[in-house]
Amino acid sequence: MIDKIKAYIYEVERFTTDNTEDLEQFRIQYLGKKGILNTFFAEFKNVPNEQKKEFGKTINELKVSAQSKVEQLKSEIASKIEDKGLYGDLSRPGEPLEIGARHPISLVKNRITTIFSNIGFNVSEGPEIEDDWHNFSALNLPEYHPARDMQDTFFIQTDPKDILLRTHTSSVQVRYMENNEPPIRTISPGRVFRNEDISARSHCIFHQVEGLYIDKNVSFKDLKQTLIYFTQELFGKSKIRLRPSYFPFTEPSAEVDIYWGLETETDYRITKGTGWLEIMGCGMVDPNVLKNCDIDPKEYSGFAFGMGIERIAMLLYQIGDIRMFYENDVRFLKQFKSSL
Ligand code: PHE
């Protein structure tokens, strides 16, 4: 009989629950009127005298441990209920935090700057509100130069026409040359503004990355090799062609086309059936520009290039309308979530 009581004590010690009904069940089973304890107490008179002492002691142990178990679980359950009131169920699984997505323009800008920083270019930035000198004159575009019309400008100050929203980040390159000695290797990403009609293909605000390399004995072949490296890294394609072009600040100047291929219907559409796509402008920095920035063109030469980030992003992500970048439609932005 004593062993039986000891077995019950063991069971009581192991018992646990986190709900009130089970605990009440347990209480009735042990401590209730017709419970285990009372059954044993009723047995007491039938126990032989010499065992009475030990029997009494053991049964008391069972009573104490059942009572304290009930108290302990009661307060545990009560404190859990209290927590629930304050914080909800603390044991529930966590809700994953929604992680935002980088804007595709930032993604592409970061990729481009990383590619160039891997070959020693640093990143330079400058103001969006510029003066005539840094946006035009220093870049070999004196007043009344017809090429100023190539970039329809938003003027902030019109009399005289001096303060404006920069039309390209070449203005940053001018500032960089004014403040740094060659060798210069710098990438200037940033937002630019042009007074153009908004359509699927063009916008009055867009982003550029321009690059500048100035050192002794820099030649056109260095430019070409840099472009091949860049297109290979960004697009995984390095078949390019350079078409003669004109920019006032470079001489000679070229437009860079990349061979995109004609494998899919989209390839046909975006390359207008030619397989070739224009991706940027470039050239050898005009000696006049170097002079304007106090760099001796007899000692130094360099190359520059510039591209529109939107255009590149549209190619990489197959986006058909430039306006998508500025509408902040979360359904559009969410699609870039997994990218870095
Ligand atoms: N600044 C030119 C533009 O905005 C791009 C360019 C940069 C071309 C450097 C040649 C060299 O169109």
TrEMBL record:
Residues 108-335 form the Aminoacyl-transfer RNA synthetases class-II family profile domain. Belongs to the class-II aminoacyl-tRNA synthetase family. Phe-tRNA synthetase alpha subunit type 1 subfamily. Its cofactor is Mg(2+). Tetramer of two alpha and two beta subunits. One of its GO terms (molecular function) is phenylalanine-tRNA ligase activity. Binds 2 magnesium ions per tetramer. Mg(2+) binds at residue 251. SUPFAM superfamilies: Class II aaRS and biotin synthetases, tRNA-binding arm. This is Phenylalanine--tRNA ligase alpha subunit. Its EC number is 6.1.1.20. GO terms for cellular component: cytoplasm. HAMAP family: Phe_tRNA_synth_alpha1. CDD domains: PheRS_alpha_core. Coiled coil: none annotated. InterPro entries: aa-tRNA-synth_II, aa-tRNA-synth_II/BPL/LPL, Phe-tRNA-synth_IIc_asu, Phe-tRNA_ligase_II_N, Phe_tRNA_ligase_alpha1_bac, Phenylalanyl-tRNA_Synthase, tRNA-bd_arm. It is found in: Cytoplasm. The keyword Ligase applies. PANTHER family: PHENYLALANINE--TRNA LIGASE, MITOCHONDRIAL, PHENYLALANYL-TRNA SYNTHETASE. The keyword Aminoacyl-tRNA synthetase applies. It catalyses: tRNA(Phe) + L-phenylalanine + ATP = L-phenylalanyl-tRNA(Phe) + AMP + diphosphate + H(+). GO terms for biological process: phenylalanyl-tRNA aminoacylation. It comes from Psychroflexus torquis (strain ATCC 700755 / CIP 106069 / ACAM 623).
